[in-house]
Amino acid sequence: MILAAAAALTATVASAQNLDAGKSAEKLFADGCAICHRSPRGLAKGRFSLTLSWFLKDHYATSSDSAKALAAYLESVDAPPPRAAAKPGAKSSRSAPRPPKPVTSQ
Question: What CA–CA distance (Å, rounded) separates 41 from 44?
């Protein structure tokens, strides 16, 4: 009986759980990255999406899906905001250039 119980306990394989499953990329950043990085801005700067997700998978994420989601999030916060279409008749934020001041001789 003891051997049967020991065999049953060792035969059952613990299934691995993905602790990141169901979390948004923002939550993944808050839970794992915000300890060292105050902001996600700049973390993806100059990096390719594929190599960034590989790096995150190897070092920080528990699955490829969470690494890809986190990489996409980091890239999205580094992307410049879309430019608003100029309204017709709206004034430009820049003023017209001024002509140079005349040179006075003394």
Answer: 8
